[in-house]
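The protein record quoted for completeness.
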Amino acid sequence: MFHVKHSPIKGRGAQSADVSSRFGLAAREVDGDWRDHVETLDGPPIKLRTTVIEERPKSILTFNQSPDVPFDRSINAYRGCEHGCVYCFARPTHAYHDLSPGLDFETRLFAKPDAAKLLRATLAKRGYVPKPIALGTNTDPYQPIERDYRITRAILEVCLEARHPVTITTKSDRVLHDADLLIELARQKLVAVAISVTSLDPVLSGKLEPRCAAPARRVTALGKLAEIGVPVHCSISPIIPAITDDVIEDIVSLVAQSGVQSVNWIPLRLPHEVAPLFREWLAVHYPDRAGKVMSIVREMRGGRDNDPNFHSRFNPQGVWADLIRARFKLACRRAGIGKTRFELDCSRFRAPEVDGQLRLI
């Protein structure tokens, strides 16, 4: 059990950067200076500034062969995510940069301004075969810095020009800022949007996912997207036992009333460094039930904090998992929500122009 040394860090999900890494994050040499002990005495700095480093990769599409995900290619316009969701399964990727999956993940961000240009060049290559590109599979494409960088919007513009199908997963109502593009993409059966709703309690959301859009704004965004004809999906994700599982039925009912006809749920996942960060978060915010939460998580994961295996990582087992599954199915039945699949059209694809050069016919 964690011994909390400080008050909750307002506006941040992770409560420290102090988490052991698989890659051995470099540590500053201890020389007895007072700075080596300041956090022990006073806790970490309360006000943490977000910094952004511009990254210039040579390619932008990431391909995967995972048998339990419904896409084979994705784009992540950003590394790290200012939303600060403490449960985010992408946190461990920051360790590849010798940065902390804790506070560094949500304060030291990377942006890829050339993403749309790189995508255009990729789609223009001879022999490229289109399949839906997934946005938001690792970090949120509509996190706060998208307001200034507008990288996601530029990617959507290329997809629209090339008539290339794309899917979006986000926790932000900022997706509505690109409604003009989404309407046209939807008209051509080229887009589907998923918005995840974890809780309906803004206070809990402020602790769990502190810089995300408030739950009510996400529900409203779902309704507006449905209203303008954009295929939209609600993901109740993640479901955290004894923390958020009490509102499953309420979320299903509310989004159904908003016109959403596609809903799923995803259980809490705690890969690698996420597990100790989440345990620390529990110790800070919910010490009275921390043991209960982790006991249920472990019961659903075969006695471990996390199950990394394909298929079973999204399919928890045991009594608690069966109960959640049954409640979700009943809630969908009562709300009139069935199994909806969004079929995107790859047949419309045309290679985009590159550097002003016309396409060969």
The chain is about 30% helix and 10% strand. The two ends are 65 Å apart (CA to CA).
